[in-house]
Amino acid sequence: MDGAARDAALFPMGQGTGLDRPHTGKWKAQKGKWEIALKAPDTGTVRKGTFSIYLSAYLSPPISPFHAAFLARSHALSLRESTRGYAMTGRTRRLFRRKSKTKDEKPYSRSSSTTNTSTSEAVIDTPSDTSSASDSSSLNMPSHTKGDTSVNGITNGMASAKLNGNSSRQHRTMADKRKQSSPMMPPFMVSAPGKVIVFGEHAVVHGKAAIAAAISLRSYLLVTALSKSKRTISLRFPDINLSHTWDIDDLPWSTFSHPSKKKSYYDLVTELDPDLVAAMKPHLANVSEELPEDVRRVHQNTASAFLYLLLSLGSQSFPGCLYTLRSTIPIGAGLGSSASVSVCLAAALLLQIRTLSGPHPDQPSEEARLQVERINRWAFVGEMCIHGNPSGVDNTVATQGKAVVFQRHDYSKPPTVKPLWNFPELPLLLVDTKQAKSTAAEVAKVGALKKAHPHITESILNAIDKVTEGAAALIGYEDFDSTEESSLEELGKLMTINHGLLVALGVSHPRLERIRELVDHEGIGWTKLTGAGGGGCAITLLKPGISHERLQRLEDTFDREGFKKFETTLGCDGVGVLWPAVLKNGIEDDQGGEEIDQDKFLNADGIEGVEELVGVQGESGDREAWKFWRVES
């Protein structure tokens, strides 16, 4: 077996095999399908067949060993190499049975030796139209070969084949009851974090540096492929009551694919093409047309980001899909919710067009860096559709996670962004004042103060810049230990100083000061406002070892006074992938995991329900199936 075939043998496999006992055999990829001949150790029966790649919509072989291993792990398929081939474990067979079983089929019995590995002879052969199975049941595998065509176990032809001892006529009767076509891609999920400004608010508007960091409040996108006969694309975002469907063949593909307009996935797009925006307008006009203008504008901006990315990266042959978004990030609170959504959409589409290999534990840092940058570039395009002229900071943090130092000397140019890859994960309490704010009004307030008192205001802004510089240096020290109170205290003092300087600029609010007062009274951490101020949110860096009683007492006070609190983590991972959408939630079924489908995802109750079902940092079960692109410093 050559290297490509060996790598391909680790690739997640297809549906409808119906294996009920250990088998050995060898696999190889050829022209987008698998060729297989398996030999049962107990009966000696050789089963032959071909079937299409289950994840063919994601990536076709040959693939790298690193990528293959990641996909195998993420799909929860346990393949173990024997001395003469590849053997499947019981978990793999159970997954196969679940995918292939219909209401007319009886469950297969489970052999007591499901985890044994046999070294019986493995036969490699290409099935022909005349090949037939022995007296045991034939292996029913979806095929793309001429004459014997099968999709997810529905076979056309193979007149001599039998299924579980039944005739092909019975097989066709069962097949007629199934769907005429089924998706070749499993549901998968993408997630990206929100962000907070930790240091440097307002100073950054005047050319100084600021630090923004990812938080563990996240957006989640579930991508579900439709059957081949369904030629529609749907976007659902129930948290903002957005739901819209487009006919794929009606979209302006010809405009976006014109040689003068077409963009490749690796291109840097720094501005929207007016002709492409104009071509999309008729397809956005009826989005939420019955809703009030302010709501409709939000919906159409979100839909425009999705369509622009889809039409730029996809093609008219794109499969029908359902894209469902849920977010645990408070919307409109200055926490980067729109950037998080843009990152999810960009990453999902890049995965679907096979330009990302997906994160995996053995991925070289430079490869991860390249793929993170690719996602970030297209997420910025989505942000331009939503905001017009974004800074690019929010989508950068949402893509790569951790934290960044950013500075903008010239507003006609993008800001300078320096990643802080070694930024530690820190416990954070985020509190929403529920006080409406206006970023423009607060920025104008500081501008007026600077005009009236230029030297004093400039001194305050310079002091904020020094605080930001000191914080970046502190975190970069080798002896900085995020678990030690002494290290956190140094960082916390800088947060307190930063807040005091923002108060001097006049951008705080009584509700923000009340949060700081309550936190100081309990002595649990260091608090500052985040963002523009004038309302919005405050963040508290929590001290280690805080008792549950003290924290609960503070949270009860917040509830009584109308604040909304979120316990979160600062400096968390960036964009992540769950492929397929199966998690061990502590409530998994007997197949070893809970499959996240549309109904479960849509019916998850609020932030807590979404986190419990799919959350990267859910409190129950094993969330290691989530994989992230990680770049070393």
From TrEMBL:
Biased composition (Basic residues): 91-101
Broad enzyme group: transferase
Catalytic activity: (R)-mevalonate + ATP = (R)-5-phosphomevalonate + ADP + H(+)
Region annotation Disordered: where it falls in the sequence: 88-154
InterPro entries membership: GHMP_kinase_C_dom (IPR013750), GHMP_kinase_C_sf (IPR036554), GHMP_kinase_N_dom (IPR006204), GHMP_knse_ATP-bd_CS (IPR006203), Mev_gal_kin (IPR006205), Ribosomal_Su5_D2-typ_SF (IPR020568), Ribsml_uS5_D2-typ_fold_subgr (IPR014721)
EC number(s) from the headed UniProt entry: 2.7.1.36
Keywords: ATP-binding, Cytoplasm, Kinase, Lipid biosynthesis, Lipid metabolism, Magnesium, Metal-binding, Nucleotide-binding, Steroid biosynthesis, Steroid metabolism, Sterol biosynthesis, Sterol metabolism, Transferase
Polar residues bias spans: 139-154
Protein name (record): mevalonate kinase
GO biological process entries: ergosterol biosynthetic process; isopentenyl diphosphate biosynthetic process, mevalonate pathway
Localization in the cell: Cytoplasm
